[in-house]
Design brief:
heterotetramer, A mainly alpha (306), B alpha/beta (269), C alpha/beta (284), D mainly alpha (294), A: 306 residues, mainly alpha, MetI-like fold, 12 helices, 2 strands, C: 284 residues, alpha/beta, eight-stranded mixed beta sheet, two-stranded parallel ribbon, elongated
């Protein structure tokens, strides 16, 4: 019989390698997904216990503003109102995004449109270095530099949302910048050429053509940055003051979901209400992270449709 | 441009007694999702001959070519039906080992795609993976295939140079050498010269003429002069269908179908 | 890639082998919990290990809550806590055996600029409930009061609230979960008030006296200074083996007088009173 | 203002923005190094920490940081490669892949203390690894995997599809083509991502407090048998890393020179992260040149 014909009707070594490779990679991804599911399950089971085992009203949890799980109120109910932390988390997240976005977009335009050479040689490494600085160090600097500055300029203790915003601004700047750079780079060259050929100045080209075309990408970057800010714990915890109070202004101590979670988790007993309530905060963080991701996807889809 | 009927077709019948076929296809259809890109093509490909597939862009000729060694398998959402007979087996069926089959039906692509490896490794990479470890055999293989691809004289002193450092035409010949190092039966070429300058093109054409002693070549080309110069048979594709198949000479002098006539005489395309 | 996978397999094998071999390489115990107690236990463990080769005592922090819940689950051999197990919700104290290894006195600290050297317990309480908002109300400078509390559930806070707040709730204020942070915030924030263990008081902050009693070890031993707590090392049931030996070692008079005192804790042996979890004081 | 002068003005603004960012980094680095470098000495880098006396060093912590990093990279790199290959090469474009991607993204935005506690309950207690380098490495793996996987996937996608077709047309499997052709070509990008990830791992504290632990028992640097408890290589010993050490002395340190140790350790940490970055840049560029130019 024809040996080639014979070989073709049997499984070749390549086919076996392929099957094995496919399996290996599938196993890797499955493992990761399993880990994520395990964490999800783990956080959800503890976080939901607050509502099912300890019978806390979900609405109270989201809307009340006293966070004293260990202390009962006048009716004998534990006080687990997470509103101050929710407001604090959203506050620092949005404010830092608002401050960071102009800087990030400016830096990205500088790197792609104004001076790609300087951008590549100086700004790019600078941005990457900012990513690498550990959050402990950011917190340390925030505590020893930013907080005193705020205290001297605005009065008060210096701790609060403003300090958190400054620290987070530096921390999310690299994320937003590098994603904006990618978005700007993906705008086809002929858009720019067309605008310049029509007599537009460089800035007109950038503001009317390039930025507009890159908008979905930039938005994705901003949301990514916000997701990062929302989940950041150590650095924010060191400068925000950790007071479970509804923030009155930007310079009085406030708290975020992560800061309360991080500082309280070691002091509570597994399975107790105090502990479960903290896991509810973690669950909230997870859901928010999911929401941010869905938002990014949605923006991406919108961008594609255009 | 006018519309031509897809039913108006002429496929020359080659007598199996007089011609030996490398591949024959029967009612091959290619779908991308719900879209049928190739509508039931049946063609014979004679052994040790060059068959050219010509036609306008989007006529389905490249898609059809890619289904001959099942490269479309890797495109998500694509599906090929019909028979592709090779050595008496329908290679479009599930029980064929597609990797083994591709060793015998090789392919050269439109854009040169050498690996980011040295010239030597570009050629020996696949044979080594298939178990050939003997240095002298590999050396010999490199020399022979580079000679066949008319590249040996230019690179023999620099075999450790990266394949990507070669010029476009040289890269494409390296890809041809890489394909023939596998000693395939059939070589599928998807517009191998379209990205190249005229001088490189003519070198590659010369290479093909020499290769046809040992290989069956099926080439997709946009360039009608090229088809006329090098091929023995020509199939004209129009709108996902093979409209006319005949000896090249006849296609270019006395086409039987109006669409072919209009295309080869430059009225559309 | 293949090499990489091979390497990975090799390493996991080594780990497995190590896993199997580990149990046989000498005795080892783990103590987890209170970060306030951690330095002492660590130092004691270090000395014990250098005196007794081949044993291994693993000391970790994580907070009193972690210590108590882990010892309750039997996941570790010793659970360190700043609080009586009875004081912590979610802990069945009856199953745990208490070993008191040291006493920690807790003192209020204020920023040096407030100009107050003495407070009454009532004043201190009112500072934390928010009834006193300016230092001039207690005879200090015209500075707004900035309360820095400890994290909810921390042992230091529980002790402080128990002996100062008299059942009142402190106002919601800035909270910090670590002593070092509290001290540096009080040191740098005008008008700040908080509380730390005696050993953390340094010249960057001021520790006022309370009803005329100064925060000294001497006053703690007689209960004249009431804000103090035991440092507990809990075991699940009576300790055995290495755990027992190590606990005896750390409670021995030699260690109590030398190490415990040197590290800024008050030796249990120096106490002239005893106090139970309900707060009843018995003079020795 | 005319369009021209607006253009000039905006260009100036953009230069200013770029300048501010550069100054920001310079200020950050300058501050940390200025505060910390005076405390860094050979003695500081090599001697063990002291729990309540002055004069402690960070020798063991430094070693632990590197060993932990190595171990977590050994675990996470193959996994990330496998998962990245799956996403770039095999995953179909459907809802399931979307779910997988979202799951990975979520893992990357989890606060690390949650990862640490999960690691504590699963690795330390459930699997019985105790407070150990191994538990820490596994927790760091969870923390590091999402970014590495994304990086691998992106790097693989950067390599044109033509390379895969070239391999497939020679009768090679997709897997072989990816492993032997696509990955070497994507290596500079993958490597850069890994080294940047390493920097992040190096600076991580919260995930390690509950897994690798906060104590650094004395090590016997003459004993390289990974099964001995005092051996530096033993993956089952607790290991405080540099970042955790900084966190610990800042929170409960009673050493008289805690502030100095903390500043010095921060400077060392930053220098290490800087070194990772420079290495990533230099190594990536070199590899890239070698792969393309030949």
């Amino acid at each position: 019989m024809d040996p080639i014909k014979d070989a073709m009707t049997h499984k070749s070594r390549s086919a076996k390698i392929e099957a094995r490779g496919h399996l290996i990679s599938l196993a890797c991804i499955s493992l990761i997904v399993a880990v994520v599911l395990a964490i999800f399950f783990f956080v959800a089971s503890r976080g939901l216990a607050t509502f099912f085992t300890n019978k806390i009203n979900l609405w109270d949890f989201l809307s009340k503003s006293t966070w004293e799980p260990a202390v009962k109120d006048a009716h004998g109910n534990p006080q687990v109102g997470a509103l101050p932390m929710i407001v604090g988390s959203f506050g620092v997240t949005f404010l830092s995004a608002v401050v960071a976005t102009p800087f990030a977009v400016g830096a990205a335009i500088f790197m792609t449109e104004i001076s790609p050479n300087l951008g590549k040689k100086i700004l790019q490494p600078v941005i990457e270095l900012l990513v690498g600085i550990p959050s402990v160090v950011y917190g340390f600097i925030g505590l020893s530099v930013i907080v005193p500055i705020i205290r001297t300029v605005f009065g008060g203790t210096g701790f609060g949302i403003l300090a958190g915003t400054f620290v987070l601004f530096v921390m999310i700047l690299p994320t937003v910048t590098s994603m904006t750079v990618d978005a700007l780079k993906s705008v086809p060259r002929h858009y720019r050429e067309a605008s310049l050929a029509l007599g537009g100045t460089r800035w007109q080209t950038i503001s009317r053509v390039v930025l507009r075309a890159a908008m979905p990408g930039i938005l994705t970057g901003v949301v990514f940055g916000m997701a990062r800010a929302f989940g950041e714990a150590l650095a924010v915890q060191m400068v925000i003051g950790n007071a479970a109070l509804l923030p009155k202004d930007l310079i009085s101590p406030a708290s975020t979901l992560t800061s309360v979670l991080t500082s309280g988790i070691g002091n509570t007993v597994m399975g107790s209400l105090d502990n479960n309530a903290l896991w509810s905060l973690a669950l909230l963080l997870l859901l928010m992270s999911l929401a941010f991701n869905l938002l990014i996807r949605w923006i991406g889809k919108k961008g594609e449709m255009k | 441009m006018q519309n031509y009927s897809l039913d108006d077709r002429y496929i020359k019948d080659l007598d199996p007694a007089k011609h030996e076929f490398a591949i024959t296809t029967n009612d091959v259809k290619v779908f991308y999702g719900d879209n049928e890109a190739v509508h039931g093509v049946s063609l014979p490909f004679e052994r040790y001959k060059i068959t050219a597939l010509i036609g306008a862009s989007g006529s389905g000729k490249s898609t059809f070519l890619r289904s001959l060694n099942r490269m479309n398998d890797n495109i998500e959402g694509s599906r090929v039906t019909g028979e592709i007979m090779y050595r008496g087996l329908d290679i479009n069926s599930n029980n064929i080992d597609v990797y083994e089959m591709r060793k015998h039906i090789g392919m050269v692509f439109q854009r040169p795609n050498p690996f980011a490896k040295s010239i030597y490794d570009n050629i020996t990479f696949a044979p080594k993976r298939f178990g050939e470890k003997r240095k002298e055999v590999l050396d010999e293989m490199v020399e022979t295939s580079l000679k066949q691809a008319a590249l040996w004289d230019q690179v023999k002193d620099n075999l450790n140079q990266s394949g990507l450092a070669l010029s476009g035409g040289q890269q494409q010949r390296l890809c041809i050498a890489r394909a023939i190092a596998m000693k395939p039966d059939v070589l599928l070429m998807d517009e191998p010269a379209s990205a190249l300058d005229p001088i490189s093109t003519s070198t590659i054409e010369d290479t093909m003429m020499q290769l046809k002693d040992k290989y069956t070549i099926i080439i997709v080309t946009h360039n009608m002069q090229q088809a006329a110069r090098i091929s023995d048979y020509t199939a004209f594709f129009y709108s996902g269908q093979a409209i006319e198949f005949d000896e090249t000479r006849k296609i270019f002098t006395r086409p039987k179908i109006k669409a072919t006539d209009d295309y080869v005489s430059g009225h559309f395309g | 890639m293949k090499k990489l996978l091979g390497l990975l397999a090799l390493i996991s094998l080594t780990l497995l082998a190590a896993c199997g071999a580990q149990s046989s390489s000498g005795e080892s115990i783990t103590a987890v919990g209170s970060s306030a107690l951690q330095p002492l236990v660590e130092a004691a463990a270090e000395q014990y290990q250098s005196d007794n080769l081949g044993v291994f005592i693993n000391v970790q922090g994580g907070g009193s809550g972690t210590g108590l819940s882990q010892i309750q689950q039997g996941a570790v051999q010793i659970g360190n806590s700043d609080l009586f197990a009875e004081e912590k919700s979610g802990i069945q104290a009856k199953k745990l055996v208490d070993h008191r290894v040291a006493v920690v006195g807790i003192t209020p600290i204020v920023n040096k600029k407030v100009g107050v050297k003495n407070l009454t317990v009532t004043q201190l309480r009112q500072l934390f409930t928010g009834e006193i908002t300016n230092w001039k109300q207690v005879g200090g400078k015209n500075l707004p009061v900035v309360v820095v509390n400890r994290a909810q559930g921390s042992g230091t806070r529980a002790t402080f609230e128990r002996w100062v707040m008299n059942g009142r709730q402190p106002m919601a204020a800035q909270e910090q979960d670590s002593t070092g942070m509290v001290r540096s915030i009080v040191a740098s924030t005008p008008g700040a008030v908080s509380y730390v263990a005696f050993s953390y008081v340094d010249n960057t902050v001021m520790a006022p006296s309370l009803d005329g009693v100064t925060p000294t070890d001497q006053h703690v031993t007689t209960n004249a200074w009431p804000i103090w707590s035991y440092e507990h090392m809990y075991t699940k049931g009576q300790p055995t083996g290495l755990t027992k030996k190590f606990l005896a070692y750390i409670q021995s008079p030699k260690m109590q007088t030398k190490l415990v005192a040197k590290m800024g804790y008050i030796p249990v042996t120096a106490m002239k009173v005893q106090r139970d979890h309900a707060g009843n004081v018995v003079h020795n | 203002m005319s369009a021209k002068s607006i253009d000039k003005f905006m260009t100036g603004v953009l230069y200013a923005v770029a300048g501010i960012i550069v100054l920001l980094l310079a200020g950050l680095l300058g501050y940390i190094l200025f505060q910390g470098l005076p405390h860094v000495s050979w003695h500081f880098l090599t001697s063990p920490a002291k729990s309540f006396e002055a004069g402690g060093g960070i020798g063991i912590q430094l070693f632990n940081s590197f060993y932990l990093l190595l171990l977590s990279m050994v675990i996470s790199v193959p996994l990330a490669l496998g998962a990245g290959i799956y996403l770039a090469e095999y995953a179909r474009d459907n809802w399931l892949t979307d779910v997988i991607r979202t799951a990975i993204e979520i893992l990357s935005s989890l606060p690390s203390v949650v990862v640490g506690l999960f690691g504590f309950l699963v690795f330390v207690l459930q699997f019985g690894f105790g407070f150990s380098i191994l538990s820490g490495a596994l927790a760091l793996t969870m923390f590091n995997l999402p970014l590495l996987t994304r990086n691998v996937e992106d790097s693989l996608r950067q390599v044109g599809f033509a390379q895969r077709e070239a391999g497939l047309a020679l009768g090679l499997s997709r897997w072989e083509t990816v492993i032997h052709v696509v990955i070497p070509e994507a290596l500079p990008g993958i490597l850069t991502g890994m080294i940047l990830g390493a920097g992040r791992v190096f600076g991580e504290a919260a995930a390690l407090i509950y897994t690798a632990g906060q104590s650094a028992p004395a090590l016997n640097f003459a004993d390289w048998n990974p099964l001995d408890i005092a051996s530096p290589l033993n993956p089952f010993r607790p290991a405080e890393t540099l970042a955790v050490h900084i966190w610990k002395i800042n929170s409960e340190g009673i050493q008289p020179d805690a502030a100095a140790v903390s500043a010095g350790a921060s400077a060392v940490l930053i220098i290490a992260v800087l070194a990772f970055n420079v290495l990533a840049r230099w190594g990536g560029n070199r590899l890239y040149k070698r792969m393309t130019a030949g």
